[in-house]
Specification:
Elements lengths: L1 H7 L3 E3 L5 E9 L2 E9 L2 E3 L20 H7 L3 H27 L2 H4 L20 E5 L4 H6 L6 H12 L7 E5 L13 H18 L3 E5 L1 H8 L4 H4 L3 E4 L4 E6 L2 H6 L3 H26 L1
Parallel strand pairs: 5-6, 5-7, 7-9
Antiparallel strand pairs: 1-4, 2-3, 8-9
Helix pairs in contact: 3-7
Bound molecules: uracil.
C-alpha cells in the first residue's frame, strides 16, 4: 500500500482474502529461475483521489473492465483481470444475499435464535468450504465464525495439514447463534438453508467439509457422523465433493475424539491433492 501511494499517489485499502499467484521462468546466467508474482485486489479509500505518477512511469489510463480487456496484450494479465472481475461480482452478489439473510429474523414472528448475523469468512473463490452447525456465544459476540475453542482446534488442525485458514471459506448451516448453545431445530435449519445454498453457488467450492452431524445431515443426508466420518461423496446438487468429519467441538469436549478429527484431516489433505491432480490431468 505504501508502494502504491509512492508510485501513483493513491490511498488504497486491500480487499480481504483475494490473492492471485502467477509463476514464470526465465534464464539468468544459464540458470533457470522461477519467479512468482502475487496480485492483490484493492479499492480506493476515496474515489475522488487524483493519480500522481512517480518519475518511474510515463503515463496511465483509467479503463472499464471491458475496455481494459481489449487493450491488454498478455494472456496472463487478461486472465488475471477476469479473475479479479469475477471476484468483484462475487463480492456484490454475496453482499446482496447476506443483506437479505441478516434481516431474516425480522420476517419470522417466532424467531428463537440470536438476531446477530455471523457471516461466513474467507475467499469468495475458495476451493475448500468448511461448514459447521451454528455460531457459538463467542462467534455471536464478535460476529465471526469459529473463533472459540472449537475454532482454535480447527485452526491448529488446518495448520498441521498445511491448509491456510485464509484459503478456506468457513461458515455454518445456520448463521445465527442458538441461545444456550442448543442445536438448531429442523425448522430453523429450513429457514436458513436457501441462503446457504445460494452462498455455495456463489463460492463454487471443489470440496465442502461437513463438520458434525447437523452439517452432514443437512447437506449429505447422512445420519450418524461417527459411522460416516472420513467418507467422500460426490454431490450432483452442490457440484462438488463432500467430505464428512466430526465437529471440532466434539473433539474439544471428548478427548478421544481428537484422533478421529486429526486422522480425518490427514485424509482430507490427500483428497484435496487428488482433486488438484484430477484438475491438472484435465488441463
Ligand atoms: N461451531 C459452529 O458450528 N460454527 C461456528 O461458527 C462456531 C462453532
Amino acid at each position: 500500500m505504501r508502494e502504491v501511494k509512492e508510485e501513483i499517489g493513491l490511498n488504497i485499502s486491500l480487499i480481504p482474502f483475494f490473492r492471485h499467484d502467477e509463476y514464470w521462468w526465465f534464464v539468468k546466467n544459464k540458470e533457470k529461475v522461477k519467479k512468482q508474482n502475487i496480485f492483490f485486489l484493492s479499492k480506493l479509500e476515496d474515489e475522488k483521489q487524483q493519480i500522481r505518477i512517480s518519475f518511474e512511469h510515463s503515463s496511465y489510463k483509467w479503463l472499464r473492465f471491458d475496455e481494459a480487456l481489449k487493450e491488454i496484450k498478455y494472456k496472463t494479465y487478461i486472465d488475471l483481470l477476469q479473475v479479479a472481475n469475477d471476484y468483484i461480482n462475487c463480492i456484490n452478489k454475496m453482499n446482496e444475499l447476506n443483506n437479505k439473510y441478516k434481516d431474516l429474523p425480522k420476517s419470522i414472528k417466532d424467531w428463537n435464535l440470536s438476531r446477530n448475523f455471523v457471516p461466513g469468512e474467507g475467499p469468495l473463490n475458495a476451493e475448500i468450504m468448511l461448514l459447521g452447525q451454528a455460531p457459538g456465544k463467542n462467534e455471536d459476540e464478535h460476529r465471526r465464525p469459529f473463533i472459540g475453542m472449537a475454532g482454535k482446534l480447527l485452526d491448529e488442525t488446518l495448520k498441521k495439514n498445511k491448509i491456510g485458514r485464509n484459503k478456506v471459506y468457513i461458515t455454518s448451516i445456520v448463521q445465527f447463534f442458538p441461545p444456550l448453545n442448543r442445536a438448531p431445530t429442523e425448522e430453523e435449519i429450513n429457514y436458513c438453508m436457501p441462503y446457504l445454498k445460494e452462498q455455495i453457488r456463489i463460492i463454487k467450492p471443489k470440496i465442502i467439509v461437513l463438520l458434525g452431524n447437523i452439517a452432514s445431515k443437512s447437506i449429505a443426508n447422512t445420519a450418524n457422523v461417527f459411522k460416516n466420518h472420513g467418507n467422500v461423496i460426490k454431490s450432483d446438487e452442490y457440484k462438488c465433493k463432500l467430505f464428512i468429519t466430526i465437529h471440532p467441538a466434539a473433539a474439544v469436549r471428548i478427548k478421544k475424539n481428537i484422533s478421529i478429527f486429526e486422522e480425518d484431516f490427514k485424509k482430507l489433505k490427500d483428497v484435496i491433492k487428488e482433486i488438484k491432480n484430477e484438475e491438472t490431468n484435465k488441463e
